[in-house]
Amino acid sequence: MRISTNPDLIEELLSRSIDTIYPSTDALRQRLLEGRQLQVYMGIDPTADYIHIGHSTNYIILRRLHDLGHKITVLVGDFTAMIGDPSDKSSMRIQLTKQEVQKNLASFKSQISKILSFDSVDNPIEFRFNSEWLSKLTFVDATELAANFTVQQMIDRDAFQKRLQANKPLFVHEFFYPLMQGYDSVALDADLEIGGTDQTFNMLAGRTLVKRYKGKEKLVMTTTLLTNPVTGEKLMSKSLGTGVSIKAESKDMFGKVMALPDEGVIQCFIDCTYLSMDEISTIKRELENGTNPRDIKMRLAHELVAMYHTDEKAHNAQRAWIEQFTNGNLPENISSLAISGATSWPDLLLNGGFAATKSDARRLIKQGAVKIQHNKINLETPFTPAHGDILQVGKRGIARIETI
User: Which domains does the chain have, with CATH numbers?
Assistant: First the structure.
């Protein structure tokens, strides 16, 4: 397999959507310039069957490495899911049964294949399960793994410290998770592991075990989280209804992207598209020079729909969105939202499914995202919607009020 050492492609890989590289960026750059195929993997969490645009960042990085000729493995943590990853959790995570894991994985590969080519003949991408080796470990093996770490190292984890300080239970089996994820690196003879910053502890545990069992250095690449640069909040959250699923229908995907906050658009271009950094820099300058953020966001929406569907569907989705929202046309089948008696704006959004919580509803209202008959409302606006009024939330949420 021919390995590319193109310095421009390598520099983009090392800098785009990257938080930290262990032990250093220079160490990984040197390995990539050697022209030797690296064994690269990323673990995926099978606790859900849903991948949104924010998750795509890591798969796009894997694609860049694959395009350079490196060996890619997507590792399903089916065995570790039955333990529950304690990373970034304030309480013990629910353990999954084997049947639940298999159910969640039913459509997972088809979603990932929108980014990664599992049909590559010259350099096939592997899709493996860590139950393949973890289910075979004996108690002696587990004891030997545990001997490489101290209790102090485990409880120093931020998530564990928070639970100890809050007097919440911390279970012994949760210490096993980083040991098992670390052993994945040994089983795969990994040269490089990729993951989010919440996985840093687990991935560094793998560095320790690869050095111990394989006598070599394993590199770790942590990636950035897609956040709003103004508020610091996640731009994609399934629980808040802001996640843009990569398996969403084209028009729905376009509309959800248009509903994202303006300030997050450039980061979405960087983390979630294949546009070059030069192209993104040009777009950023256009935005700074006064181009309407809506037009920039429309390009992002078009780009993403074309990535996961086709150019034709992207054009059609854009045309439909313009007809619906820019030209003032309303969709033919608007859902109804019934109200009865006294209520409030936050309650209206919550009951209508436009917000996950009352605080989320209040945030939308404060941001000016809620309109009645095309007029923005605020928390002080008297609650007086009439029968037949049109409620709009963001760029895509719409319903006709029915008083009962």
Answer: 7-223 (3.40.50.620), 250-326 (1.10.240.10), 336-403 (3.10.290.10)
How far apart, in whole angstroms, are the C-alpha atoms of residue 329 and residue 109?
Answer: 38
pTM of the model: 0.78
Instruction: Quick: pLDDT tens for 300-326.
Output: 999 999 999 999 999 999 988 887 766
Q: Whose CA is closest to 65, among 223, 214, 174, 255?
A: 223
Q: How far apart are CA 232 and CA 222, in angstroms?
A: 18
Contacts of 97 (CB under 8 A, 6+ apart): 82
User: What digits encode the pLDDT tens for the residues 135-177?
Assistant: 999 999 999 999 998 888 888 777 778 888 888 888 887 888 8
